[in-house]
Design a protein that fits this description.
With 266 residues, the protein is an alpha+beta fold. It has eight helices and nine strands. Strands 8-1-9 form a three-stranded mixed β-sheet. It has a two-stranded antiparallel ribbon with strand order 2-3. Strands 4-5 form a two-stranded antiparallel sheet. The radius of gyration is 27 Å and the shape is globular. It binds iron/sulfur cluster (3 copies).
């Protein structure tokens, strides 16, 4: 199955927020209310899985989970509550989630939110309307379906990437020569093109984050323990060899091994 994605063209977006409303209604998230820990209801929250950011020149850009090709959130989750689905959506299984929130720390885009005000809190973020589409209730996400000007469209990521490049090539004087999401964090399912810069968090790398960090973090302790054990074994073997040589040289069976070896082998 091909990787699905969303292409948003900032030059076409009119900032109507129909995408935001449609997401809330389709996913029954409830309405955001100001809280002491998040007074801004326009910010992403457990009840707002997509939002709009203002850009220079009166532009807007959508912000939501970017459905990374190699999602750091899923790599960080110790119980597999976040997983990459065959269609590319990064989906969430609340029954598996143990609430550790490692995913929130791992996401370079700072996307997942936690439903702090519920009795049993869950991690919340856009899931690319995966379940609704899989159940046949929709053929595309609610947000893209709701957009009145097709500023945000759903499709195969490769086709969307080609369309993004086609638009840039067609109007090089209009667009910044960049498809946001083509390479960031190893590539994402959410793509943007724009005529103004779209700032990303400084934590967003251009190579896959799981490769760069999570695998390293996971293998360091094993490597450390393995190397440590190997070094101890090596020192023991060298010490034993030295003692045997000393015995052979003295011919009396008395061990002449250096004191340092004895000390280090204990
Ligand atoms: S944007 Fe964050 S939450 Fe979404 S898939 Fe990437 S790492 Fe996971
Ligand atoms: S894809 Fe679905 S869950 Fe994600 S922002 Fe759009 S409507 Fe919301
Ligand atoms: S519905 Fe379309 S035009 Fe309106 S804010 Fe969302 S992306 Fe922009």
């Amino acid at each position: 199955m091909s990787h699905k994605g969303i292409l948003t063209d900032v030059t076409r977006c009119i900032g109507c927020a129909s995408c935001v409303t449609a997401c809330r209604e389709a996913n029954d998230t409830g309405s955001p209310v100001p809280t002491p820990w998040q007074p801004d209801v326009n910010e992403l929250s457990a009840t707002r899985w997509t939002t709009l950011d203002r850009l220079p020149g009166g532009r807007f850009v959508r912000r939501q989970c970017r459905h990374c090709l190699e999602p750091a959130c899923a790599s960080a989750c110790p119980v597999g509550a976040l997983q990459k689905a065959p269609d590319g959506a990064v989906i969430y299984d609340s029954a598996r989630c143990m609430g550790c929130r490692y995913c929130m720390m791992a996401c370079p885009f700072a996307i997942p939110r936690y439903s702090w005000d519920t009795a049993v809190p869950y991690v919340r973020k856009c899931v690319l309307c995966h379940d609704r589409i899989a159940r046949g209730e929709a053929t595309e996400p609610a947000c893209t379906e709701a957009c009145p000007v097709e500023a945000t469209i759903f499709g195969d990521r490769e086709a969307l990437l080609a369309e993004a490049k086609r638009r840039i090539a067609e109007k090089p004087d209009l667009y910044v020569d960049r498809v946001w999401g083509e390479h960031e964090a190893g590539g994402t399912g959410i793509l943007n093109i724009s005529d103004v810069d779209i700032p990303l968090p400084a934590t967003v790398p251009t190579d896959p984050l799981p490769e760069r960090t999570m695998k390293v973090l996971r293998t360091v302790p094993a490597v450390f323990v393995g190397v440590g054990a190997a070094m101890v074994s090596l020192r023991w073997l060298i010490g034993r060899r030295d003692r045997l040589r000393a015995e052979a040289a003295s011919g009396d069976g008395h061990t002449e091994a250096p004191a340092t070896d004895e000390k280090e082998n204990h």
